[in-house]
Amino acid sequence: MKEWRFELSTKTGFTDVHGKKILQEISELGIATISAVETARVYLVEAGFDRAVAERVGHELLVDPVCEVVHVGRRASANNGGATQIEVHLKSGVTDPVAESVTAALVDMGAPCQNVRTAHKYTLLGQLSESEIALICQRILSNDCIETCIRGEDGEPPSPHALPYEFARVEWPLRALSAGQLVQMSKERDLFLTQVEMEAIQTYFQGLGRDPTDVELETLAQTWSEHCVHKTLKSSVDMTIDGRSVTFDNLLKETVFRATQELAKEWCISVFSDNAGVVEFDEVSALCFKVETHNHPSALDPYGGAATGIGGVIRDPMGTGLGAKPVANTDVFCFGEPDRTLAEIPKGILHPKRIMKGVVSGVRDYGNRMGIPTVNGAIYFDDRYLGNPLVFCGNIGILDRDKCFKRTQAGQLVIVVGGRTGRDGIHGATFSSGEMTHEHDSIFSHAVQIGNPIVEKKMLDVLLQANEAGLYEGITDCGAGGLSSAIGEMGADLGVEVDLEQAPLKYAGLSYTEIWISEAQERMVIAVKPENLEAIAAIFAAENVESTVVGRFTSDKKLKLRYQGQLVCDIDMDFLHEGVPKFARKGVWNTPSLKEPRLPEKGDYTADLCKILGAYNVASKEWVIRQYDHEVQGGSVVKPLTGVANDGPSDAAVVRPKLASDRAVAVSCGMNPLYGDLDPYWMALAGIDEAVRNLVCVGARTDRIALLDNFCWGNCAKPEVFGSLVRAAQACYDGAIAYGAPFISGKDSLNNEFACEDGSTISIPPTLLISAMSLVDDANQCITMDVKAGGNLILVVGQTHNELGGSHFYKLQGELGANVPKLDMDMAPKTARALAGAIGQGLVASCHDCSEGGLAVALAEMAFAGGLGIKVHLGDLPRGPGCEGAAAQLFSESNARYVVEVAPEHLDAFATCLEGIPVGQIGSVVEAQILRVQDASGRTVIEAGIDMLKSRWQAPLNW
Amino acid sequence: MGQGENREEDANMTDVKAIVLRAAGTNCDVETQHALELAGARVDRVHINSLIRNLELVDAYQIFVMPGGFSYGDDVAAGKILANQVMHHLRDALERFVEQGKLVLGICNGFQVLVKAGLLPGATASSHTQEDVTITYNDSDKFENRWVYLAPQTDRCVFIEPGRRLYLTVGHGEGKVVAQDPSVLSRLQSMRHIAFQYVDAQGREGGYPVNPNGSMASIAGLTDTTGRILGLMPHPERFVHPTQHPRWTRMNGNIECDGRTIFDNAVKYVRGHF
Questions:
Q1: How far is it, in rounded angstroms, from Cα A898 to Cα A17?
Q2: Which chain B residues contact residue A625 at CB under 8 A?
Q3: What tens digit of pLDDT does each residue of A55-74 get?
Q4: Are A454 and B50 inside 8 Å of each other by CB?
Q5: Residue B1: inside a domain, yes or no?
Q6: Domains and CATH numbers, chain A
Q7: Which region, left, alpha or beta, applies to residue A643 given φ > 0 means left and ψ of -120 to 50 means alpha?
Q8: pLDDT tens track for A270-310
Q9: Structural domain range at position B63
Q10: A782 in contact with B, Cβ within 8 Å
Q11: Is some CB atom of chain A closer than 8 A to the CB atom of B243?
């Protein structure tokens, strides 16, 4: 057996686009001595074939015959003088999808091989110091978490040949341990369990009269992890709000859940119980929606972390009911400001620009390969996300209404479908529940998973066929916690027994515990009646998808694991799922004493508008959006970018999930962490209102809005941090009730704090993402935010208040302010309903909500998206008391406001629809491509060409 | 959910039959089926494994479509692994298909496969291997989804209405058509292999983003010497409904779904010739 080495490099005369990009990144590092970067793809193929066959493999399979050359063997550097060669290899055990494809292709060629590995080779032309080389390797070429850099002509790392595993049952004696020793054990074994939890486990095993095995403890730690059980949000709370005491028995049940229960919407099919919330779509179909975070892995390996984030959340709808077909992705990210110098970044943290680029490419490569359009999202920048970037990924799926519930029964087989099990991602669930430190990148690199979207796509294709044929009775995804979580949950009410050695492995050497808790991606577990086994296995095999029977559901309510016939786990499902001690938490909220700044009124606010348009949070995200396929599946109705030049910012996305029907789903989000610094209660309501406004703006129904919550908070053991979360949870209840919009699913990610080397911590701001979806009865009735025609009228719906607290306008001046935007919970839903009614009657030409940057930004965006001018006079702007100043009128971020464009002939009918709602006709659309705003006195306070405004808005993130 | 590959006999449908090939990572097959059905074809989505097991399956169809997606993850290079499978298992069947006067359409990843399997432009040699034209990484080195105008450059291709400019969407990271040298490029031009060029709204060639990937001679699609094989990077199946146009809300209902012409022309051709 020989290891053939193939190097593929760009042919002379053709552009090496990867090399060009890397050269640019090197120059961005401030290294100017490099004249060129040459890249090569490297394949190491272990095979029995001879050189003649190897040459054919190189020429027929690996090379692009037009623009590449192939070299069989190691290609010497052409330029020995000032050239540095670096080869980047995957670390042993890291999934290599390309290698898997090449292995299969070699079989097609009739030249089967033993093993394939891939690498990338970079030749840097120019003089470099050792430290510069190290910097380039670390910052640009590789991620130490998953890759190794080899220098010069060094031989490649040896092919991994893992040693086989020899069974040894491991017990972790804890019955006799003291409280302190229990805590130490939890820490040393990365269990992330508290003393109380360890004591509960100790008591349980004392009752059994034996010590636990390693896999039993790991299973408990994973099942009881914050990530899986949300013990903080379900804890009882002693809360003090400005000295007033409030208590909760179970925070989540008394806030978010309670709203859903009280609303009791008949169109909600399944809420907070399955992998995603399920609502009705039409007579035969239902929609499900789930949003997850993948924060900690994305901090360590932005590309892999984000890719597996989207890959993981896609499996949630796939594992909801009897399986949904994913139809749309969403993504929302929070990063540190991207223009920080490296010196400003604490040790152990990747630069925010690198994190952002990695995260965007990770979501792009996975989402696009799955063939699911990524249609809605947001990006929020704040330096408090430096150590803990947030990566929210969402997925909407469609399923049959008669297949919304599982029917798993005793006697059915447990079958693992999809990818194989490896060492990837071990301890992901427990790791994501803890705090990050500057050492985390080295300690927890094994928690990073690498995705292979094609494995997931293949699995999806066959599962949909098996679902249509009715060949399985239950399904769930392997997410955090792997088989432990998936099988443990599926068997919770029944009992299950599993033979772990049956699980197909990527490579030898995994212990029974590793098999059980591995978070290897692209796996689903299904429950199959024994009589259907042959038929379902045939469907999977027909498309090269692996499926393996690993166990059987029982009726003894026990979790029994065996390895080669030996019992390694035998615990009660009740203890596993109900035994976690309930948390009691304290929360404190003291309304901060904040002051409004005294800023002199200016004569002209054009410069302020330009600066806000160019603020990272407001600026165009086109660079990101275009990298996502937002049109695959053919259902696109309102795209993320809209307007005369296809580049204006849509409020929400609209998708037709069934191509033969004009019924559609609208999806949006709302989030504004800055308001949380003033009051998380109003922050949460602003998020809900924003998500609702965005749906209204495209023409969605207001009576079918379903909400999702994603809480990302700092360390909730701190009463003031937890107190702010409680405030936000209370607001979720109030907002859901006010809008009649139930929460159908949610998720939290807590302990988002980063411990710096110097002992300081960076905590993220309270971050609540509200995602929303609703129905559109007829896609042809949707509208977009770009102004349509000169002569049309511009109206503002909703009242503007003096609410500049937490606004972008204040941020520009370095102020926070005090007047956080509040929500009139009576008027806001009435406004939304009335406006939706007018849009439904076809009376509105365009509609955009006022959010970050307020009215001025909304007007600017509508104008430049439509390629037309807008002239307004603020005299008739509906406004509350204390809102006389132009700054407040232009930039206040008051909720429940919309800017609408109405044709003159529709004005009367529009006014009738909006009766009782504050509406002001403030101006009109003009052909001249200028935005001009006059204040109540007639003074021009903003005047600018729309092209200039657009370029200010597009410039910051036009990478 | 429409996942079934074989549909019941329907007496009302015409006898134009199209096969949409699936492989691991294919992901535009369902909307491509929908577009073909709108044009009046009967469509089966067939996995390549089924086809390899029974090559005669293909004889029942007159239109063979390789849809978009990321076959095998675009590993090695876009379309390469599937092209390798086509070359080693389907070549004879496809050659026979084309010789019988039937049609082959490759969209996006399907176009990449046709080029890398040597079926396009396919003018110089009888042995179908990729020779002197390729599709490689966009100049921007990233995936991009945007709308483009296409000007037909040939009157030979049965899928194309000469003179009718189309507005369609692209979504790819490897769509740059490259000829090995200037003589190959002039052969593509003189032999009328160029099916579509990227142009602006006025019909003029231009730089990025008019030409979204840096293709030589703004090539967006290629056809073979018979005009019965078409490959193109843009996605006609993504513009068969008015609300798919990115500016439909500005157009007061005056929307012609440009993507439909490709499928309509194919079905019309089959009806006229079989």
A1: 44
A2: 145
A3: 999 999 999 999 999 999 98
A4: no
A5: no
A6: 2-151 (3.30.1280.10), 783-959 (3.90.650.10)
A7: left
A8: 999 999 999 999 999 999 999 999 998 888 889 988 999 99
A9: 17-273
A10: yes
A11: yes
